[in-house]
Amino acid sequence: MAPFSFSESIDRFHTQASQARGLEDFGDDDYRAALGVLCRSLDEDARLTPVGEIALQTMITDALQARLLCEEGWRRHPEASDARIERPFVIVGLPRTGTTALHHLMAQDPGLQAFEHWLMRAPKPRPARADWDADADYQAAVARVDMMFARSPDMRAIHEIEAFLPDECWNLFAQNFVHSSYEANADVRGYAAWWADADMRPVYARHRRNAQLIGHREPDKRWLFKDATHLFGPSALLDVYPDAMIIQTHRDPVPMIASVCSLCWSSRSAMNEGTDIREFGRSTLALWERSIYTMMDAREKAEPAQFYDLPFERFVRDPIAAIRDIHEHFGLDYTDEADAAIRRFREDNPKGKHGAHRYTLDEYGLDEDEVRERFQRYTDAYADVGAAPA
Questions:
Q1: What gap in Å lies between CA 95 and CA 292, rounded to an integer?
Q2: The CATH number of the domain where 186 resides is what?
């Protein structure tokens, strides 16, 4: 039997997505170049297991279905184009620097709205919360999350994902096939080289269209976005959201790199054959080194007051105080309602709820001294980042 060819299956992926949703309009063709490069790299560079092959096919067809649903949503709800997105919060930071915990806490504020996992997979105007359990798209998202954790059981202790919780913007970037998660799941070095120079502005333009569609029924709620992938496209982010309030989290790069390697390896090892764990460690180090210096270069040209810097250790010590300080920095009120909701969520979701996450640099063939040297400019710029944990 001939090996599966992603490149020769692009038309089939579109047909499968159309048949699944009964829709045919995928919108502008600005995603096709990226999809072609990704499929070619999957064919030429990756060594997928049968599970990995199915998983990547599913990722592609799911993204195409999301494009279809977004276009159909705009056709049915042209009023979404009137939705204004003003001064959104954008949480950005290297992986494993507290962004997910901060995102989940801030999203409890009744004055904010965020992209729930299930609505990024099936974009539509956000239904009332009481209607979610009966929604077929919500049910499918719950089943998908359960299957993911069944495939990679250690993942739940590493990164919290639930269909009803806010999730990362890469799930929307997938509609353009431009984001960092493909590199986490497979060796796609050809795609990675192409993506390093890709124009992110169409990606953020579509991100905004999704936000307008999903959130236009709650116009008074401020948006809250979050993703480490924002580090790779800060100029495009600010082009599309020029008044964004950016919260950048920071952490000692040594435990950060070890932790992100552990997170990504939990998927990579199940989905790929013969992956060299040390080679994987070095490519992961290079990826996130590039991301942080891309952000630093962009910040040199941006308005400093548009950013709030949050060291990991300060957030861990007192997350409530950190969130209050964020509001004060941007001249916003931190309400009693927000405080009560955040405290309630924190009590219901204590750290380590799903087990401990353990990791070391050594298992990925990385050396602490090299990591510190390569991140030196970053830790010099943010003096309290490279300090040992308190």
A1: 11
A2: 3.40.50.300
